[in-house]
Structures are given as C-alpha cells and as structure tokens.
Request: fold
Amino acid sequence: MSEYLVDIRHERLSFFTPAGEVKALNDVSLRMKDGEVLGIVGESGSGKSVTAYSLMGLTADNGKIIGGEVSFNGHRIDQMVEKEIRRIRGKEISIIFQDPMTSLNPVYTIGNQIEEAVRVHGDKSRKEARARARELLELVGINEPDKRLRQYPHELSGGMRQRVMIAIALACEPKLLIADEPTTALDVTIQAQILELMNELKKKLGMGIILITHDLGVVASMCDNIAVMYAGEIVEYGSCDDIFYNPMHEYTKGLLKSIPKFQEKEYSKLVPIEGQPVDLLNPPKGCPFAPRCRSCMRICLSRKPERMEFGDGGHYSRCWLRQKEAFEAGGLNGMPSVGGVTVAGAAPAGAIPNDAVSAGSGMETAVSEKPEGAFPQETREVDS
Amino acid sequence: MSEKLLEIEGLKQYFPVAGSKKVVKAVDDVTFFIKKGETLGLVGESGCGKTTTGRSILRLVEPTEGKIVYDGKVIFDSASGTKADMLPYRRKMQIVFQDPYASLDPRMTVGDIVGEALDIHRLYKNRKERYEKVIGLLQRVGLNSEHANRYPHEFSGGQRQRVGIARALAVDPEFIVCDEPVSALDVSIQAQVVNMFEELQKELGLTYLFIAHDLSVVNHISDRIGVMYLGHLVELADAEELIFHSLHPYTRSLISAVPVADPKTARNSKRIILQGDVPSPVDPPSGCAFRTRCPYADERCRMETPEFREEAAGHYCACHHLDRVGA
Reply:
C-alpha cells in the first residue's frame, strides 16, 4: 500500500480523433499525500483536467491511458473496470466542475440531487438521506436549508449552485476532492466566498484537494504544492513558495511575468509569452515550450529535458537551461551544486552546448541534432 | 485640463421583462466623461451593467434616457429628442467584443471580416487598395498577409481577438469600446493582447473605454477607473487613487477579493468577504443598491439613493456613510 493518496507514474494518455492522435498527457508523474492541497495550473489544453479526470476514470470514450500507472489510495485506477471504479467515484473521490449552471440537473430539486449522492454509496433510508442533505447544506453555508432542499437549480444564484455542488461532492466524506476551475464562472466577490468555504472545509474535514485552475492568484491563496503543466507535461513542480519565489522553468517564469501586478504602485509593462499555444496533434519534438521560449537553445528543440531537482523539498523542473546553468557552475568550481541546486554526478566538460540561440531569430536554423549523449544521463536525478 | 471626448449624462437603459410590466434597470442614471487619449476602465460583477453602458454609448442599444455628447456634438438626448445619424460616428467609435469565438462570422474569411468595414464606409478606390489596406491592418495587429484568406476557425483565441481588433481599426477610429477583450483568453495570451492595446493607443492616439471584471487587468491599463454595481456607478477616480484610497465599501471589498498571485501577501491579507449575492436588477433594493450587502447600511440607505458626488478632486463616490467607512 502506497503512502501516497495519489500516485501517478509516467502516465501517457491519448485521444484518438479523426484528425489523428492527440497526446494529451505525456509522461506525467504526480504524487500527493493525505490532506494535501495540490494546485494544477496551465493553459487550456495543457492536460490539467485530463490528469485529474483520469484519476476518476472519467476519460472520454476516444481517450485511452496508453502507458504508466495511476493509483489512488492503493487502487490501480488504470486497471479497473468501470464497475469497480464506480464504487470509488463519488465516494472516495468526488469532483466539482467549473460551471455550476450546467452541472446540476434542472428537473430535480436540490434535495433530490444531494440525497441521490448520499444513497448511492450507502444504505441510508430516505429519511436519513434527507437529514444528511440538510446537514450538508448547512455545512456549505446555505441559509434556510429546508427551503432550499425543495428548490430547483434555476431558483439559485451561481454562487449558491456551486455551494450545492460542493455539498454533493462532500456527501460521502471523500478522501480526495477534485475542484476543476471551481470559481472561474463566478464573480470575484463570490469567488472569495467559495475559496473561503473550501479552506474551512479542508480544515474541518481534512480531505485532500486537487485544485485545477489557470488563475495563479487562486492557487497562491490555497495550495501547499503546485504542478505547472504545459502541453501535457508537468514542466515544474514545487511548493507554493518555490513556484512563486523561485521558479525554475522558463514557462513558469513567463507566466508570472505576464500577469498584471495588482497593488503595486509603479507601472511595469507586461511581458507576454510570445507565440501561440501548442498544437497537440503535432507536438514539438524537444521541450514543448521551446518554440515560445525566449532562452531557447538548440538542444531544447531536439531533445526532451529530463527532470532536475532543486533542494530536497521535491521541487523540480524540466528545463535544459537549468541543467546548463548547473553544469557551468559545476564545471567552474568542481562542485555539482549551485544556489541550492543539487545535481547528482558531475558532467564531463564541454558536454553542454554553448550556442544559446534567441527564440525567433535562430529558431529555423537550430534544428540540427545534438549527438547522442551530448548531455550525460548521470547529471539527472530522476525519481528518487 | 485635457479635452473631454465623450460625456454621458444620466444614462438609463431599461429593458422590458417578457410577460410582465416590470423592467430590468440594467443601467440606472450613470454620469461620467472620458478625456481625449485616456483609458477609462469600467469594472463590476456580471449583471452590473458595464457592458450595456458600453453598448448604449455606441447606441447599439437605444438608451432609454440620458444624454450622450461625442466630441462636442450631441448624438443622443432624450430630453430634446435628438437622435443623430450614427453612420458618420461609426467611423469614429468602434467596439471590440468579448468573445472572439462568437463575434467573427464563421463563413467569412478574415480578409473580408476586416474589409467589410472598408466596404461600408467606402474607404478605398479600387480592389488593390482594399487588399493593401486589409493586409496593412492585419500586420498592424501582428498577423500577416497569408491569414487574409483563412477562416476564423483556423485561428486560436488570441489570434481571433487580433482579427477583432483589426476590424475595429479598419475605419481609423478615435474611440474604442473594449468590452472584456481579454477575459476569454489564456493568461499568457492576455498579456500579448493587453500590450497591443497599449501600443496601438500610443501610436494612434486612441481613447478607450475598457470594460472588464478583472480588476488587476483594468488597473494595469487604465488611467481612471469606474466601479459599477447593479446599474449604478458607485465610484470613479484615478486608477491609483481608486486602488489605494478607495472610499466606497463595495470598491473596497472588490479590491480585497482580487486573488493576488503572491502566496505571502495572500496568507497575510485579510479579505473583506461580502455576504450574499447581487440582488436581481428587476427588483433592486430601494435607496442605495448596495445596502443589502453593505456592512455599514442603515435606515437612511434604505430611504434615499446616495448622490454620486465629487468627494475629492476627480474622485467621485456615491455613499451616505463615507465618514463612518473611514480612510
């Protein structure tokens, strides 16, 4: 039995569409402990929702896990059949969706829908289920619960509906709650209410939460650890402070620079990430972010960077630039570490290409292959 | 004092509710002006009337009441019944819409979408000139000539928004209403588009009314910011003044609710969490619209609507209890 609540190892997941194979997840590994709040950030299409959904066996029909392991609480989700997953889904893992307007059934009352969740995984009578539903509505801060139980979704506001969704998700006291953009469709003042509620519930119930969002502000206030995804890969993972104060991937850095600084007096121009999001039908060969990266080197275009760890808090990124920096520092003073960066093993001199090319200008000419072994395996610390 | 390009006085926009005699007061007595070359940001939650305000100004929906003066000329005045012919003004006042997926005709090529404005206003002598203008516009927004023959579905969200901007720029406007132009875009693309708006403003001397619900984006791009709540403008001031010295209790809670992308600040800051939801604009509260959620509300707020007054130079606010709200 694993000590982790969630343990995903080298997951590959593809969608098979008429246009070809869309590689939605490409070697994703992720772990989280009981009671942890993990944030997954990334742009649309980066695979953040797919990662979480595959934990619940909720992959669309044309999608398939084609490699790796997906474990939850000791269960191998990827090897289970639908019937087995159903026993876990809704009971041990539950989910709240982005859009509370469309994820409730309009023809059933709020009470019906919460009771259903209560009764599916248990042997409660109707009466007990109703009492539990009432209790859940109180838990999520809905006033006049008796009246609300008899109402239909259209009679409630967006914020209220999201509270009902949370009540349904909590019906069986899950070990893991997946919140997929839970506040994106809500106004800021309502968003603040829902985030506050989720924080309270976490303290009260002690469940693990995976918070999927594109909003860095939301993760900053909620999460213990953050995984940054880009084009189906986790490009950086670390504690909340690591990601915000010591980002180690060029994409993470770019993201942080591209958001307007609020409550800062001086005006500073935004630094956008140039280019367009990746086409997953034809993903780049090397680092997926290379075509948009300002510090793109030749090797970035031809080979995927391996995972490199920083410190011992689990912070890692996949970026050739970091490997190069570490190597150069190591090459100069013979020490394989720089600024808290630990690189296992030392690399032979001259292995790192010095020809950093600026993105855009040198891009077209930089496709030449690096000779195999140009960057030695030993410099990488993979899965400890 | 720089010149006022646009003046809005007592703008009201009511919509009838189907099957009843009630009306939705989407915009209720809004007064403000926009100076030449500035960016006025308009923020508020969904349903507060910010988009409707933008559309009423362009008379895309005919205002119920009020007066709109553009560059010294009255284009709408309900009191005197003035309704100017808008065609010449459409060349000066343009709009960029929120949803780049819905605001481009899927059956027109990008070249035609941008060129249509040129056709309507007859801004070219021959096909060649039209083509050159279209290409010039696409290049101006960071696209290229190859894109002219493609259809909207072939573009990403950010690129589509660029097409929408090129279309607005086609007639050489002076004033653009930007209606949530970046809220449908990914964070990394948002910055590209925001920067483009800023560059275009500098190059072409444009004036913007920038409507968005994201206070951090509005703060970034705006010279002055107006805050709307339930059809009313509750506060208006210079951007910095508004963020750091806001007066209205609603503005304050709005500012404190913005999630800050900085874990230390987020941990230490105390949020003012408003209770409840925004009331329905069909049945707005009497007196001050915000009173149902306001921690300072009392009998007076129920009885009389607070006046939108200039509290300090250029800082307008509508609240009865500024003395109690304190600094």
About this structure: The first helix of chain A runs from residue 48 to 55. Chain A touches chain B through 47 residues (CB under 8 Å). Chain A is about 30% helix and 20% strand. Chain A has a mean pLDDT of 83.
